[in-house]
What does this fold into?
Amino acid sequence: MVLERRFSSAIAEVHAKLLTGPWQVSILTTPQLRRYRNRGFQHGWRLVIPHGEGTLDFDVLVTEHFPHQPPRISLATLQRFLVWPHVEEDGVLCLLSSEATINSARPGEVTLSLLQDALQLVLESEIGNNQQDFRNEFTTYWGRKCPEQCIPVWSLLSPDQESRLIPFWSGKEFCLIGESTEQLEHWLNNATKKRISGSREYRQGILLPLPQLPCPKDFPKNGRDLIACIEQSNAKHLIESIHQEGLEGYLAVLAGKTPTGTAFGGVIARVQEKLRYPAERRGGSIIDGFRPGKAPKEVVQSQIKSSLSISLTTVERADALWIHGRGSDPKVKTLQSSTIAILGCGSIGSHLAFLLAEAGVGKLVLCDPEPLKWANVGRHALASDSVGTSKAKSLATTLKNSYPSSVGFDGYCKTWEGLASSMPEKLLTCDLLIAATGNWTTEASLNAWRKTADFRQPLLYCWAEAFAAAGHAIAIFPDDGCLQCGFSPLGLPKLSVTSWSEKTILQEAGCDTSFQPYGPIALSHIVSLAAELALDCLLGSVCESTERIWCGNKRLAKDNGGTWSEEWKSLVGDREQGSFTQELPWVPDKNCLECSFI
It folds into this structure.
């Protein structure tokens, strides 16, 4: 009832405001509202506005969510779809972005402001001042010209390059284009098999970078238009080589720059019927009378121009630079060329792998000797369909499916010692090595190996304290201390955030099946802490040994019988409530026994 009263009050306020304007106002009838199918408009007004020597009709339209949802303005009688920018098929104008906010307490003022924007749009459109908007939002308008049932094209192409031949693969659900058949094969092998059907036959297409993307009125409509685009891209020699191979058809991809990156549009060109000579040579093909491959180019080109039928299709960028930063994040190139090894693919390591892959790290080496068990599923990145399989291998497969453009995600069902012994290059060639085993014996051994193997890249250790009430991520650089510098010989950290009156390690009903009791929500802060430090190391933001500590909310520790340690309280002072990150230098210990063994 409150929403209904708010709606009625807003309608009355807008109506009163509209009556003060220089236009004729009438309330839209139900048949008039039906013109805007599937829009959900509940109420509207028709405004007849003096304009030049005639009038301009606007419809002001609102849904049941008005005034919290802004009104929409429509061209009531003019058909300007794909003639003027920001006009949809039914005449509704796009005046606000989806992220725009409005003052719902002033619906009348909001409506008048939108009407002014609509009038300005009409004026600019009439004199052609905003045609560049078509190019800036090219993919939207190109998609509006594509048939509803068109097969979308997914692009792995590198933007901003010269015209060239490109391979493509066509399946039942999508078409994939890329720089090479090897790139396409890599992507298809990584992608989930459910989406890949049909043969692995690769065909040739052509990329046509244009000096300026076309407006809708200049979109290619026939073979001659397409040939004109090819000539504009200085690619005539490339298309001739495709035509010499066969006259059945091909895929052309138009490309051009926009303020937000390169945009693509696809054109599927097909020969309408078998090309033939004039009537006196009925029954003969176009190359009859010529030796194979010797038909005059001008004859072939003329016949192709007149016989090609074309259809437009959408092209969506699926390359790594676009996926991981919409083409605007320069850090992605560095991350794509980086390799990280994660030792331990449990509750921390598995989620860490997903975050790093999502951030754009191109190569991950995942190592864990254990299978996924049902007890792991509640806080692991893998789900029940992976129970019984290798954590590392299943995680690698899942990540490949999720990010098929990745350089490579490899899983090894081994201890890290086994991997270092059988394939030492997998660790020694990494840009960063992450230990997420949560086991002091294992990580102390890794700390010692680092010196004997002369591993010269940063090594990051991460773990959670009891109940994930706090967590640590430590990046140690060569010749700048070691893990042992911050621990006792028994593996107890010199600085702990929490203190517990009772034992916090729990035991399952089995041998050697102890575990730390914590949930995925508390753990997420610690995973993010480690992921952020990992990226900082790769990108050069952190260049010396550093520790970052997550101090969780005090209530989490208190509810489970814990409190802050005296060492921690003396370090951070009165920040009693927690929920913050503390960064500290990792100071080498001059008395460290491990550091003395060189």
The mean pLDDT is 88. The longest helix spans residues 107-126. Residues 175 and 327 are 21 Å apart (CA to CA).
